[in-house]
Amino acid sequence: MFQQVPMVEIDGMKLVQTRAILNYIAAKYNLYGKDIKERALIDIYSEGVADLNEIILYYPFLPPGDKDGSLTQIKEKSRNCYFPAFEKVLKSHGEDYLVGNRLSKADILLTELLYHTEELDSTVLANFPLLKALRTRVSNLPTVKKFLQPGSQRKPFEDEKFVEELKKSFG
Amino acid sequence: MAGKPVLHYFNGRGRMESIRWLLAAAGVEFEEKLIESPEDLDKLKNDGSLMFQQVPMVEIDGMKLVQSRAILNYIATKHNLYGKDMKERVLIDMYTEGMADLNEMIMLLPLCPADQKDAKIALIKDRTKNRYLPVFEKVLKSHGQDYLVGNKLSRADIHLTELLYYVEEVDSSLLANFPLLKALKTRISNLPSVKKFLQPGSQRKPPTDEKKLEEARKIFKF
Asked: Inter-chain contact B97–A17, Cβ cutoff 8 Å?
């Protein structure tokens, strides 16, 4: 629609715009809470995850001189802003999942983020026991466990070689 | 649902303006607690009101919502401006996200260094004329209805109308070849709640000039 990817063909539609696609999938598979208030919390948490994820997403594509500054920013924001916020949510209700005592897209997006942040900063989860526990719990769900295994459609970290190839394809 | 929503932000458009538009269009009266100094922002951070230490923040229905998309989604759902089912919602989301991409470019233009500004404006004009507006004109042409989705007013129409005003501020000739978009903009602008919001003295914020930008820089430290 806007000459960009991602694009997902699903249920007879050609969906673009990551958030539109994620919202559709979450609603379809009951991962979007049970009412408007739960949805608001899921949206708040998902958007927070997206903000940090955006910095991480661009990291492999930065010019070498900008990488150190970005990495410092990622470490600082995850340790001082985002991870404490999510750890506090889990501590406040003591439940297994972020919202409504039930798995939602917020748990899945956060789990993904925790893996990706750790790839860049291996000790980042040291002071966040509840986040570690959530990540383990979500990772042990049969569907997620399968996805985490080698040979699945999960994509690896974008190293320099990969970035070179990509630049050739997309110009 | 006691009390009016309270919007916490500085006295400028930024990331709160779409929220002001949506509330106003939905006929919801709201209050604003303006952040006028870095100390005001620090106070909000220190009393734990801001989950990620950022504004916008809206107090509504007993919650302190942050993240503009979360806030917009909540208001749209609450006021029946988000379509009738999942398929309408995904159309609204796709259109809204496309609009947000263009809106972001326009919103960040004042921050552009002087030597890059002309190139940025050229890019905005190109994207507006060739990527974004044709899509929405085509949607309206395809069904011939008065609104983008489901033959009913939704947030997509309100966000688009807001965006079209900003496009005109960049260059009034950009809308020349989009008659259906012009008609939609007029139609939405004539809705009583929107008409009121468009009048001088409303809570609608003017374009961000140098002075406003300096104020924002001081408060948000960028």
From this structure: yes
Q: What is the CATH number of the domain that holds B52?
A: 3.40.30.10
| Same domain? B71 vs B102 | no
Give yes or no: residues B106 and B175 share one domain: yes
Tell whether B167 and B201 lie within a shared domain: no
Chain B residue with Cα closest to A15 = B94
Residues of B with Cβ-Cβ distance to A13 under 8 angstroms: 87, 90
- The pTM is what? 0.96
Contact A19 B74 (CB under 8 A): no
Chain B residue numbers with beta carbons less than 8 Å from the beta carbon of A73 are: none
Burial category of B130 from C-beta neighbours within 10 Å (exposed 0-12, middle 13-18, buried 19 and up): exposed
A65-108 pLDDT tens trace: 999 999 999 999 999 999 999 999 999 999 999 999 999 999 99
pLDDT, tens digit, for every residue of B73-117?
Answer: 999 999 999 999 999 999 999 999 999 999 999 999 999 999 999
Q: Do A39 and B77 touch (CB under 8 A)?
A: yes
Phi, psi of B176 (to 5 degrees): -55, -40
Q: Are residues B35 and B59 in the same domain?
A: yes
Same domain, yes or no: B73 and B137: no
User: Which has the closest alpha carbon to B160: B150, B171, B149?
Assistant: B149
The answer to whether A39 contacts B73, with C-beta atoms less than 8 Å apart, is yes
Model ipTM over 0.90: yes
Q: Measured between CB atoms, which of A43, A81, A82 is closest to B73?
A: A43
- Domain of residue B163 covers 86-190
Q: Residue B149: name the closest of B203, B106, B86 by CA.
A: B86
